[in-house]
Amino acid sequence: MACPVSHTAAELNPAVLPLDWLLGTWESDEPGEGCFPTINPFRYIETLYFSHMGQPVINFMFNAFHAESKKPLHRECGFIRVQPGTNRVAFIIAQNSGLVEVEEGELTGQQLNLQTHSLARISFAKEPHVQQISRVFQLRPDGRLEQTVSMATDNQPLMQHLHITYRRSS
C-alpha cells in the first residue's frame, strides 16, 4: 500500500508547523500491546505515515498488523488540523472498523492529548460499540514516538487499550 506522500515539494503550512515533529514514517520498534476486558490480550506492529501537501492540515495513515501472524488488524486514516493562534488540535479519523471520529485536544511541546469530540459508526458495527477514545502521542527524549490509546464501550469504562513506541524510519 502506498503511503500518502506529497507529489510536490510543498512548503509546510505555518498552521501545522507546531506538529512538524510528527512528519515522516514511524515504525514500531517492538510490538505494541493491546488489551481490553472483552478481548484476549494481543501484540501488534504498526506503521504510521504523517505527510503534508502545503495545506493547513497533516495527512495520516496508520496500519497495524498482528505481531505473530502478520494478519492485518486496524487501519486509520485522516487529517490533523490546528486551530490558528492556539494549541488546540483536531484529529479527523476514519477507521476500517466502520468508526469515524473527531478527537480534539491540546498540543503541549511535543505531546498531543486528544479525547473524543464526536463519533459516528456504520449501522452494522460490531458490538459493544466504542463510546469514547482518549489518545496521547509523545515524542520522547530518545527520539521515539509513544502512543497510548484508552477506550470506553457500551459496557466498559474508559481504560487503556493500546500502548506502543515507534522509531522514525523516514
Automatic annotation (TrEMBL):
InterPro entries, alphabetized: Calycin, Nitrobindin, THAP4-like_heme-bd
One annotated GO molecular function: nitric oxide binding
Q: Which residues form the THAP4-like heme-binding domain?
A: 16-168
Which CDD domains does the annotation name?
lipocalin_heme-bd-THAP4-like
Query: Which residue positions does the secretion signal occupy?
Result: none
Catalytic activity entry: peroxynitrite = nitrate
Q: Which PANTHER family match?
A: PEROXYNITRITE ISOMERASE THAP4 (PTHR15854:SF4), THAP4 PROTEIN (PTHR15854)
> What is the protein name for this chain?
THAP domain containing 4
